[in-house]
């Protein structure tokens, strides 16, 4: 099927990209997951990655952040290909992104502040009291009360845990934020509040956000463009409006089926409590 130019997964060479994937091939044993996959993510955009279950969304994310080794192809993040970097350069690059994994994955034996300090301990050499101060700033930044810093994950609601995990992903002031199913398991109000927070953070901190989700409301509420993964590659990437015009069975079913139409109709309302607007200087 021919992809229209407006839905090409690659962008013109003069566009400032944060992530560039070319000719990616991945697999496990006899199973091929991606084959000749290309994708560009513009600096400063929120891009959503969708696709049927098992199409390889998480594997793609894991390749981009270096947790899986591709069989072929190149991946550049912020203009650097981690595969060509030495250990010191690779570490410097890894510092520039934050990741919120599917399950949130906070350490249950650590408080929220201690969780946020884990990447600080790994990458920065800071005195403890300064790390505590930074951790509190991150807690406030994601709209949690400062008291949440000394709580354990089990003492928080699901929505608060997601925010705490987001605070940890932001610990090192990343340029790129990877979110894997960030609203999974949240009620619609908490999910809408989280969507709102992601947009506010992107706008405030000039982040590039790479977001995997099955949540159509999240796609509508947050994403500038959406990339569709099918048959091992990105078959289309563009605005939801443009994708709705794309004559592909899965894309049509996804965006123009009953749930897709409902998401358009019900565009989630912002939360009753406004999300705190973090200032850039607060996190400088
Ligand atoms: N470490 C691994 N070893 C072997 N197979 C794997 C591994 N990780 C993922 N896979 C396989 O790769 C395929 C893609 O998995 P992935 O988790 O990326 O799918 P997904 O699109 O994120 O799915 P979902 O939407 O259900 O989360 C699946 O068939 C999965 O079983």
From TrEMBL:
It comes from Polymorphobacter multimanifer. InterPro entries: AAA+_ATPase (IPR003593), ABC_transporter-like_ATP-bd (IPR003439), ABC_transporter-like_CS (IPR017871), P-loop_NTPase (IPR027417). The keyword Transport applies. This is Phospholipid/cholesterol/gamma-HCH transport system ATP-binding protein. Residues 261-284 are annotated as: Disordered. The keyword tRNA-binding does not apply. GO terms for molecular function: ATP binding; ATP hydrolysis activity. Gene3D superfamilies: P-loop containing nucleotide triphosphate hydrolases.
């Amino acid at each position: 099927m021919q992809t229209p130019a407006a839905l090409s997964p690659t962008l013109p060479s003069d566009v400032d990209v944060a992530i560039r994937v070319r000719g990616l091939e991945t697999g496990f044993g006899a199973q091929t997951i991606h084959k000749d996959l290309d994708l560009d993510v513009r600096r400063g955009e929120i891009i959503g990655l969708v696709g049927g279950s098992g199409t390889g969304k998480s594997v793609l994310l894991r390749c981009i952040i270096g947790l899986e080794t591709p069989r072929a192809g190149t991946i550049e993040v912020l203009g650097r290909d981690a595969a060509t970097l030495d250990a010191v350069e690779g570490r410097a690059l890894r510092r520039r992104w934050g990741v919120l994994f599917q399950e949130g994955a906070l350490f249950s034996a650590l408080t929220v502040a201690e969780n946020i300090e884990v990447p600080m301990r790994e990458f920065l050499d800071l005195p403890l009291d300064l790390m505590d101060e930074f951790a509190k700033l991150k807690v406030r930044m994601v709209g949690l009360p400062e008291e949440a810093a000394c709580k354990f994950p089990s003492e928080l609601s699901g929505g608060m845990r997601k925010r705490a995990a987001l605070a940890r992903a932001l610990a090192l002031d990343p340029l790129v934020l990877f979110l894997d199913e960030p609203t999974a398991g949240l009620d619609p109000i908490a999910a809408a509040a989280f969507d709102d927070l992601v947009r506010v953070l992107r706008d405030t901190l000039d982040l590039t956000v790479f977001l995997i989700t099955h949540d159509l409301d999240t796609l509508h509420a947050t994403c500038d463009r959406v990339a569709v993964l099918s048959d091992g590659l990105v078959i289309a990437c563009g605005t939801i409006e443009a994708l709705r015009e794309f004559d592909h069975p899965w894309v049509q079913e996804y965006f123009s089926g009953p749930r897709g139409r409902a998401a358009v109709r019900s565009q989630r309302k912002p939360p009753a409590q406004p999300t705190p607007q973090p200032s850039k200087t607060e996190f400088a």
